[in-house]
Amino acid sequence: MFSDDPDGGRPWRPTCLSAAFRGIREKAGVETKVRLHDLRDFGATQLLAAGMSVTAVADRLGHTDVATTPRVYARGTAEEDVRAARIMGEILSS
């Protein structure tokens, strides 16, 4: 058990959670460069790319300043790049 409290009454310490993630990652055969925090980044970026409001994603991440969310997590995805190119192509060919 990685928690200090096996009954679940207290939250896990970050080091315990990271250790549990490393064990799961290794069993899954995922490269060692993937960190637990990378899953947070991925989730936030995907939610924003799917059209979720910045406010909703900020709430989910616990950001008190909504401006933090797009500054940190609004990275483009390959799908968005293709869509942007298509839109620009339509605009320029009109």
**Approximate strand percentage:** under 5%
Structural class: mainly alpha
C-alpha termini separation: 62 Å
Order of helices and strands: HHHHH
- Tell the overall outline: elongated
Which spans of ≥5 residues are poorly predicted at pLDDT below 50? none
Total number of distinct structural domains: 2
Helix content: 55-70%
Mean pLDDT: 83
Radius of gyration based on Cα positions: 19 Å
Question: What's the tally of helices?
Answer: 5
Strands, count: 0
Largest sheet entry? none
Detailed description of the structure:
The chain is 63% helix and 0% strand. The chain has 94 residues and is an all-alpha fold. The chain folds into two domains: 1-34, no CATH class; 36-93, no CATH class. The longest helix is centred in the last third of the chain and has 16 residues, at 78-93. The radius of gyration is 19 Å and the shape is elongated.
Secondary-structure topology with pairs:
Blueprint: H1 14-28, H2 36-49, H3 54-61, H4 68-73, H5 78-93
What is this structure, in a nutshell?
By secondary structure, the chain is mostly helical.
Offer a few descriptive terms.
mainly alpha; 94 residues; 63% helix; 2 domains; 5 helices
